[in-house]
From TrEMBL:
Domain RNA polymerase sigma-70 region intervals: 27-88, 141-185
One Pfam family matching this protein: Sigma70_r2
Entry's Gene Ontology BP terms: DNA-templated transcription initiation
Alphabetized UniProt keyword annotations: DNA-binding, Sigma factor, Transcription, Transcription regulation
Domain of life from the UniProt record: Bacteria
GO molecular function annotation: DNA binding; sigma factor activity
Name of this protein: RNA polymerase subunit sigma
InterPro entries: RNA_pol_sigma-70_dom, RNA_pol_sigma70_r2, RNA_pol_sigma70_r4, RNA_pol_sigma_r2, RNA_pol_sigma_r3/r4-like, WH-like_DNA-bd_sf
Transmembrane segments: none
Organism the protein comes from: Fusobacterium nucleatum subsp. polymorphum (Fusobacterium polymorphum)
Record-linked Gene3D superfamilies: 1.20.120.1810, Winged helix-like DNA-binding domain superfamily/Winged helix DNA-binding domain
Amino acid sequence: MESQEVLELIREAKKGNNETTEKLIERYLNTVRKINNKWGGTDDGFQEGILGIYQAIKTFDESYNTKFMTHLYFHIEAKIRKFIDKERYRVPQYVIESIKKGEQERLYFSGIENLEIEDENTGNENLENKVLVEKLLNCCTRQEKEVLNLLFFEGYSGQAVAEKLRMSRQWVHSIKHRAFEKIRNNIKSPRDF
């Protein structure tokens, strides 16, 4: 059971009292630091941990007779881990723009294996973009290329790709993120560029 003082602060914070929300945040900053240090100790992770405090305040239900710290710990750690997972699969913006340009210019895969690109309006700049996309995708497996093709070039939803390839939507998601990770690593240590 939580102390009456903390329960009063939580009730006031839920009503929208910013002062009590700030008091609660200050009270649990060390908890955020400890959890953040466990997951790498980044400034962004620390900020996500503070957002976890907000979320814990909003969702705390005193009728469960649990300590606020137990509830809080879960939300802080979940926010930090979610942020770390998202960062792990981040693809640089210029890569996304190149892929989008390829889509707008009707970039087709005639052979997934060889990645031959067909387009009647091939100018030098367009050709460079297509070669960049082709080189970025060369590090992917046949299956990863096929999933990326269906998702980003042919406009299928994740569910539609899963049905077409007869696999679960989670597996499609996993393949997509594995491909993004390879592309990101290929950009960091380019072999063919």
